[in-house]
Task: structure prediction
Amino acid sequence: MIYYEVKATYVKDAGDGKMKSTKEVYLVRALNYADAESRMVETLSHYSHEGMPEVEIKKVKYVDIFDSEIVTDDKFYKAKVVYTSLEGEGDNLKEKKVSVLMLVRAANIKGALQRLEKNLVGTASDYFIHTISETLIMDYYDFSVADVAAQPAQV
Result:
């Protein structure tokens, strides 16, 4: 599975009876670009009042997502984690660093840091958290086998 960041532009009800053009960012785990696009267009078309939403899709390389079921955890934070390890033998040991991106849902940056540290406990390599920053992601749509089964077979 691959993660895709989808920037969607569509017209929705602003809550005061007026229509408003809005841009929102979503994260989708999907089989490919077409799968990500069709799932987001279908999902957002229920909220769009003027035609189909326009979407821009790009692949993102998150190695893990730490989601939350807590209602107040309404923000997504991108964390860059750097793993360090020793490679080689004898006197030829060299330190190797590998950076990875992870996504954490939390109410604030402190909560994101706590959730990230909790999930990294017990990892085999040494690591340090390089950065944590808030993203514009509104929601995350995970892949489901039921989603694929519900789609008609392509010939």
Remarks:
- The helical segments are 33-45, 109-120, 145-150.
- The chain has a mean pLDDT of 88.
- Residues 33-45 form the longest helix (13 residues).
